[in-house]
Design brief:
Helix content: 55-70%
Subunit structure: Component of a hexameric 5S RNP precursor complex, composed of 5S RNA, RRS1, RPF2/BXDC1, RPL5, RPL11 and HEATR3; this complex acts as a precursor for ribosome assembly.
Strand content: under 5%
Region (Disordered): 1-39
Number of strands: 0
Low-confidence stretches: 11-36, 141-150, 321-349, 377-414
Mean pLDDT: 83
Shape: elongated
CATH topology of the domain at 535-679: Leucine-rich Repeat Variant
CATH architecture of the domain at 535-679: Alpha Horseshoe
Biased composition (Basic residues): 1-11
Structural class: mainly alpha
Family: Belongs to the nuclear import and ribosome assembly adapter family.
Radius of gyration: 29 Å
Oligomer: single chain
Largest sheet: none
CATH class of the domain at 535-679: Mainly Alpha
Protein name: HEAT repeat-containing protein 3
């Protein structure tokens, strides 16, 4: 039903356990079993205890409890959000930090309904107040003697980091939260935190995630970006890469700047495109598999050295605890119990693991940004901005943001400059490389270590993102920018090998959707340019038979579209009668039996394409009795649209289905003339 459009990627919510989506509706409604109220009730009661240490312990306990699915309804019933909210402004900074951590985990685990419910319960009021107090605390050098003794600037930054993560999670899920973000001037606050990136990259990364969320489709906020605000982003982009985490930070800021494209002066657009794609190119150029291997080896060596040093120290000093901060990696014993509660809010990570996760996340983010860049509405030719290309992709920062006070032009378009920049930085080639399966040695290393095992999923996600990115690039760029006809044929062979090297490909839903989307776009481009295709009829039918039983509607739509594209090419060739008959029978079965009207409509479109022209197609249509089958299905299709359409499908989908319905009537008339001619 027309060319596929890749969906834009949204930033994912933070998840402290990797996969903790809970029964959010039950939480928001306060329904669920009573069995889990025991620990929740006890911890919530302790939030009011006079002792700061007890309150802190209770917050830390809740931070762990909210990660357990059965506990969430009980917490909702007992109004945990309203009871935790005031502790964001508790006199004790450690209580503030653990309370923010508990709310962070709740907002991450609960999903959209829980986050929206948190806004309803006015969590934004104490949260914004906390963010403002942290901002003032970072500026102020006036601290009471007790504060100087017990607290330091790092504590304030830790609290700010937790608070920003709560803000990010809630804004990701609630438009009301974004509106409050705009009205309360939160932009200035979080940008102040971002400016601390040279000394606190963790806080800066949290802010960058939040900015990517709140700047997307938010014209009201864009008006608040002054030249000073943009220079903060500039300073991050121009900073040297000192670690994988700083690379992730630059990638996230690049995504934020892309969201700000509507306020960038026209004459600076070309330089900005080049600068952003330069960063994304550098991220994608790194070999994630080799990095995993190297970092794992470094970790093993560090732990071995630490164990040897600890043994020597124990022999020298007995069981004394080591209190020097520099010896933290040697001994896991801590004198200060309070810190252990804070660390429980997030999964434990070591330096090498954090660095590796940062790289994998940066690569996934880079691919998503490229997809989003390719998903802009294509303007007409007379709307293209005349942008001047620049080889000095870093130079744009010198002048571009100084012009924000002047006249701003129309929104940035995916123009010839973007196409050229994508090609100049070898983005298609680097994306192509990421479509390969993850390094087997890296996967094996991760599979043997529980803390590294989740990285396997992240590596697989990068492959899927690369395939979807490839789909966008193939749909957007000219054949020449993709390397020519030979490169497309090589790419088709590569995708076929990826697909058929996995006997259980039909069971891997994410992979199947991604690779079928890439194949669909590639085969469509090759067919439009009369480039010979590489998939054999047997491979084609294997893909379609495996994909059509997927529970994912997108996969089913892709496979019938691929069948239509390939069939329309075969219809113009000789000796393809039997293959066309197989294709026709398959598409007819999908048309009449698939429960989704979208898939049925796509299958009808594919039938129209395959049997629209060609002698072999005409003979095949008569032999499979296509006309009688479509005549029988026509009233059924009309009835299904009338009965099932409203409420189940979007307005756009219904418009497309209505168009398919009209085309079906015309196609039946055409088939009547074909059958009459061939049977007379």
């Amino acid at each position: 039903m027309g060319k596929s459009r890749t969906k834009r990627f949204k930033r994912p919510q933070f998840s402290p356990t990797g996969d903790c989506q809970a029964d959010a509706a039950a939480v928001a409604n306060g329904t669920g079993g009573e069995d889990d109220d025991g620990p929740a009730a006890e911890l919530l009661e302790k939030l009011q205890h006079p002792s700061a240490e007890v309150r802190e312990c209770a917050c830390a306990g809740l931070a762990r409890l909210v990660q357990q699915r059965p506990a969430l309804p009980g917490l909702a019933r007992r109004d945990a959000v309203r009871r935790l909210g005031p502790l964001l402004l508790d006199p004790s900074l450690t209580v503030r930090e653990t309370a923010a951590g508990a709310l962070r985990n709740l907002s991450a685990c609960g999903g959209f309904e829980v986050c929206d419910d948190m806004v309803t319960k006015d969590i934004m009021t104490p949260l914004v107040a906390l963010l403002k107090e942290c901002s003032a605390g970072l500026d102020s050098n006036e601290m009471s003697p007790q504060e100087k003794k017990d607290q330091n600037r790092n504590s304030i930054e830790n609290i700010a980091n937790e608070a920003v993560n709560v803000l990010w999670n809630i804004c990701e899920c609630s438009s009301r939260a974004v509106s409050i973000f705009n009205k309360e001037g939160c932009l200035e606050i979080v940008l102040k935190y971002l400016s601390r990136f040279p000394t606190n990259v963790d806080l800066a990364i949290s802010v960058a995630y939040c900015l990517q969320t709140v700047t997307e489709d938010n014209p009201e906020l864009l008006k608040s970006f002054s030249a000073t605000a943009l220079h903060v982003l500039e300073s991050v982009l121009l900073s040297p890469v000192s670690s994988m985490e700083s690379l992730l930070l630059k990638t996230l800021v690049a995504g934020t700047i892309w969201n700000l494209k509507d306020i960038i002066p026209c004459k600076s657009q070309a330089e900005i495109i080049n600068a952003l794609l330069k960063i994304l190119s550098e991220v994608l150029e790194m070999d994630a598999g080799e990095t995993v291997i190297q970092m794992k080896e470094t970790e093993m060596q560090r732990l071995k050295t630490a164990a040897e040093a600890e043994e020597i120290l124990e022999n020298t000093n007995g069981d004394d605890l080591i209190e020097d901060d520099e010896m933290e990696g040697i001994s896991r014993k801590r004198k200060v119990r309070r810190k252990t509660f804070v660390s429980d809010l997030l999964p434990a990570t070591d330096k090498e693991l954090r660095e590796t996760i940062a790289l994998l996340t940066a690569q996934q983010t880079a691919l998503e940004i490229i997809v989003n860049m390719c998903c802009n509405e294509d303007p007409s030719d007379d709307e293209w901005e005349e942008l001047s290309s620049s080889d000095e992709s870093d130079a744009f920062m010198e002048n571009s943001f100084n012009e924000c006070g002047g006249q701003l032009f129309s929104p940035l378009c995916l123009s010839h400059e973007v196409h050229t920049a994508l090609t100049n930085y070898l983005i298609p080639k680097k994306v192509f490389e990421k479509t390969a399966f993850p390094n087997s040695i890296a996967v094996d290393l991760c599979s043997r270590n529980p803390t590294w095992k989740p990285l396997i999923r992240k590596m697989n996600t990068i492959q899927c993102r690369a395939l979807l990115c490839l789909q966008s690039l193939v749909s957007l760029l000219d054949v020449e920018h993709l390397g020519g006809a030979a490169a497309l044929q090589t790419l088709a062979q590569h995708l076929s090998q990826l697909l058929f090297s996995q006997p259980d490909f039909a069971k891997r839903a994410d992979f199947l959707e991604a690779i079928s989307s890439a194949l669909r776009a590639l085969l469509q481009t090759m067919a439009s340019k009369n480039i010979s295709q590489c998939m054999t009829p047997d491979q084609l039918m294997t893909l379609c038979k495996g994909g059509i039983h997927s529970s994912n509607v997108g996969v089913r739509v892709n496979v019938v579209s691929i069948l239509g594209i390939t069939g329309s090419v075969l219809a113009k060739e000789d000796g393809t009668l039997e293959t066309l008959k197989n294709i026709g029978c398959f598409l007819l079965e999908v048309t009449t039996k698939d429960p989704s009207l979208v898939v049925a409509g796509e299958a009808l479109d594919a039938l129209f394409d395959v049997f629209a022209d060609g002698k072999e197609a005409e003979r095949a249509s008569v032999q499979i009795k296509l006309l009688s089958a479509l005549k029988e299905f026509q009233p059924v299709f009309k009835m299904k649209i009338r009965k099932e359409g409203k409420g189940n499908y979007s307005t756009d989908q219904l418009c497309v289905l209505d168009n398919v319905k009209m085309n079906l009537r015309r196609f039946i008339a055409y088939q009547e003339t074909v059958e009459k001619r061939l049977t007379s």
